Every structure is written in structure tokens, then in C-alpha cells.
Amino acid sequence: MDLIETQNRNRSDTIRHPWELARFEIVYSLIKECLDKTLTDNLLIVDIGCGDLFFLETLSEREPKATLIGIDPALTTEFVCEYNKKDKKGGLQVFQNDNQISSDLGPCSIVLLLDVLEHIHDETSFLKMLASKPYITNETYFIIAVPAFQSLFSSHDTFVKHYRRYSNSTISTLMTKSGFRVSRIGYFFFCLIFPRFVQVIFEKFLNGEKTRTKGTGLTKWEGSKIVSRILSLILVTEFKFTNVLGKYGLKIVGLSNYIICKKYV
């Protein structure tokens, strides 16, 4: 979750939003797909824009032998120092920027950019800079998730300081222009398009001024843990179904984009 959205939350909250739970399972399935191709024994995953660490902490439970690094400039110095002192399962550490990472960091297996690029004004320069890092090789997978469709830009995007939303075409063009080759691309969260479309219509045409000014961030999930799990299961099942359809040439849109790529040799 974006740190902007956690200002009214406690890290000890155990009930996560179904969107967060589903996104983890979807991205984890993409990670496993990449790992089947790399067959690496020294798994190093760097999550840039790691937010409140829900994703990495959950990933550390699934991959306890992996080295996991979270980077987010929004993390405070105090939090980073205290967190890295804790006795945690697996090799999980966090930093404010990658200049703080040890220079002998081995080749990175996977870089995660999960709902990050939309926050960056010049994302092309950012991606080129990232590709030049010494821990990035031609075999490093980049798994990227971004919000989909500029036409669905709403108060929530404004609230969390998004510059833009994407599509298969625009994210593919961006990555190619930035020096990457695309191996897979698609959408997820098909059923969430409809409530977002209703929200956009309300805001633009039905005097939704209060909604526009306050935003609609995922600051608090009011549902129960079981409801959250059920809804996340529905979203994950939907992704698996639309993923199968995509393999047969039927592309199903969704509220989010994903893309897997490597930098050009």
C-alpha cells in the first residue's frame, strides 16, 4: 500500500484490503513464472517503492531463503534503522534509497515496481537510470504494475499523487523507449473497472465535488477478515480466468496493468 494511504492506519492492523491481498497473489504468480525461467539459487528481489512493506513481508514468508530489499524514499530514517535491527524471518532489509545498499550486492533476480511509475514525473529517465545500476543485469526481470486507463483518472489518483494512468500500448511504448524488451503484458482486476467508471462519471458529470477534494484512498478497510479473503479470492480467480483467455488471444481489460520485461542486451 502507498504510504500516503496509510497515514490513518497502524502497521499492526491485520485485516488488509482485498485489493492488497489479491494484488499480492497475482504478482506472486508472475514472480513464480519468472523464477521457473531463471532457476536461480541465489534469489534477490528488490522492491522499489515498497510502501508499508505488506508485500515484502508476505513474500518473505513464501520465499524464506530469498534476499529481499525494499527501497522507498518516503520511509523515515528512524523507521529504517529500527526495522533493520529486528530479528526477522528471511533476509529482508529496507532502505530510503539504493545508495545505502552494500556495494557487493549480487545480481538482482527480479525488480518490482508496483504502482510506482505513475508517481514519477519523468518515468523514462527514471527507468534508464535504474537499468544502469550495477545490480541490474540483462537477465534481471522487471515486474511492473500500474493503474490502467487515463479515462479512469479520478479523485483517488489525485489523492495519492498520480501523474497518469496507462494502457497496454502506453506502458509497452514507455518500456521500449526506456531500453527494455517486453516479454509479457496484460491487465488484471476486470470487475473493478465498473465501480471506478461509476465514480468517474459521478465526479465529472454529477457534481461530485466533495469526492474530488477528499479523495478515496485505501486508508481503512472496514470489512471483516473473512470478507476480505473472499473478495480477494474472487479477484485472483478472475485473473486466472482472464489469463487463460489471454493465452487464446482474447484480451480482457482491467483496472490495473502489468508488464514483465528485461533491459536490452
Strand-pairing-aware structural class: alpha/beta
Second rung of CATH, namely the architecture: 3-Layer(aba) Sandwich
Q: Mean of residue pLDDT?
A: 86
Number of helices: 9
How many individual domains? 1
Report Rg.
18 Å
Q: Identify the overall geometry.
A: globular
- Which strand order spans the largest sheet, edge to edge or round the barrel? 3-2-1-4-5-7-6
> How many individual β-strands?
7
* CATH class annotation: Alpha Beta
- Give me the strand/helix succession: HEHEHEEHEHHEHHHE
- Termini separation comes to 33 Å
Poorly predicted runs: 213-217
What is the strand content? Answer: 15-25%
Going by CATH, the homologous superfamily would be Vaccinia Virus protein VP39
| CATH domain fold name | Rossmann fold
How is the biggest beta sheet arranged? 7 strands, mixed
Percent helix, as a range, is: 25-40%
